[in-house]
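Folding problem:
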Amino acid sequence: MKLFNPLKAPFGKAKFSRVKNVAYRQWEDAFEVEFDDGLSFLEPHRTIRKANKIAPKAVVIRVEADEELRHGFFVHYDNGQTAEVSWAFIRELPPKR
């Protein structure tokens, strides 16, 4: 089932805004990402796993925001894998194939 978020911009058209806060919502299996401009997104964990080729059984250990540039965040897993998530991944729709 495809979900459409009307707040997401077409690929390559999103306006940059720094990541203000990020949190993993375990009960939703999603990441809540808040930006400086006030927009907030709930990004499903499965999309981040798929984009970063994370093992299906890997468990989230911690979420680390990029404190210096605030352009994204990192998700660290119990198996040593790390997912890197940029601001554009959250704010833009995927490219059309």
